[in-house]
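Subject: two folds for Thursday's group meeting

Dear M.,

Sorry for the delay on this. The cluster queue was jammed most of the week, so I only got both jobs back this morning. I'm pasting them in the order they finished. Each block is the input sequence followed by the predicted structure tokens. Could you check whether the formatting survives your parser before we put anything on slides? The first protein is the one we discussed after the seminar.
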Amino acid sequence: MKTAAAFMQRASSPTVWLVAPLLLVMVVGFDLPLMVMLGQSFVDATGFTLARFREVFEASAYLKVLASTFRIALITTVVCALIGYPLAYWLRRLPTRWQVVALALVVIPFWISILVRTYAWIVVLGNAGIVNRALLALGLTDSPVSFLYNELGVIIGTVNVLLPFLVLPLFAAMLKIDEQLLRAAESLGASPWTVFWKVFFPLSVPALAAGGVLVFILTLGFFITPAVLGGGRVSMIANMLDLFVNQMPNWDLASAISAVLLVVTLALFAVYLRLTRVGEPT
């Protein structure tokens, strides 16, 4: 009775009624379509079925797209880590006022449309772009280098978009590392190189791993960058879903592929939450 009374009291509070419209929008706009999508992937005219999932995992064309997506996501994550970790470490060592300037330069791309930033790479890396014209002028190549309309172009554009998602949280985690631990190691005779590898780097690994998982998850759902910089030659899951939904259409198969992507994303998100908890100070 007390539990029911407490529930009724919370339900009648003004705060609940303020949140109710937002909750209704989330249920109708997100949860309901998601449930319909999952139901369509598991149910057909005869009832429960796994036929659509068997079709996804038995068809070599779909498996190639899945493999291509995960390969691009993995390469993008590694490249972001190789570029982002030194950048975050350099930001940490800057004076405070220069940190603000450098962080502003990292954040500025968020103010520009992804579509605009993606098309900008065509100007830079196209056959008549800035890079190829410079290579030809310097005599380093006899013909334009194919930077675009392949996996290389997609990876370059994706890294450009997602690098801040790794740098910013990693930089924040590095700032939380206690300087006294580093000074204690130095006072015991450790060299700066030893202090970094034995003390600083292990403490920053959870944040680096969490940022890497976040970049990997975001890459799985990329659509605009592969469509523009891939030139229709690089197929990823989002582009395949667009094909099944808008051109074929095959909603049942699109639902099954979406369900697979959802499961993978949720699993990776659970890993991300685990890593962020590990990285938090106790």
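Second protein, same layout:
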Amino acid sequence: MTLLSVNLNKIAVLRNSRDEGQPDLATAAQTCIAAGCGGITVHPRPDRRHIRPDDVMQLAQLTRGHVEFNIEGNPFAGPRPGYPGFMALIREARPDQVTLVPDSDAQLTSDHGFVFPRDAQRLAPIIADLRALGPRVSLFVDADAGSLELAAALGAARIEIYTGPYVRAFAVGDAALELSRCAATAQRARAAGLGVNAGHDLSQENLGALCAAVPELAEVSIGHALIGEALYAGLATTVRRYLAILAATPR
């Protein structure tokens, strides 16, 4: 079954709005794990708008030996006050997976992937350093990304398909083209020896169609919609509903 990794960024956004420690990030993670998720994802940004470096360390300890811990972020983000730099965080936290994303400080959310061969030279030493540390390396890519063989040659183990365009097309009832792009990219990735993850704006409404079109999916990372839906149904119940969708997809 495709692994569900729950992104906790939005829990941290709510906590930071009052900065009184509530809702508690560790309790949220434990609730998701108890409900059956296979992973926890965070995307710590240099401006600390949600997940903070101390959260990363706490969750690294909490998840170790229980579920996969996935840290997303821009590998070129250097240190600044209150933020040690992305690679420094990885060296200390030692997650199971690192998902490299080409986002800038000013971006509200991730909205595009790496481009090959353009980004290959900058990524090569980063991926080599990460592989030496041990985590699986995944690269965030657009659904029509080319030269995936080069991503594999750089040492990446997986790609994560950016599903924002698919979700927007699904919302207006015209998702066929975007689904075909996701499916074709997944097939090319598998042919290159890469595993396939997917994420961004996925929800209970649109997840099933994606999984049916892309049976190669190893993992989906879901946060914004899942946390929003949990406000109405509860966090554990919402996690179980996502797992039911993934379990119902033929493999």
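Two things I noticed about the second structure. The two ends are 8 Å apart (CA to CA). Strands lie at 3-7, 39-42, 68-73, 97-100, 136-141, 158-162, 195-199, 217-222.

Cheers,
T.
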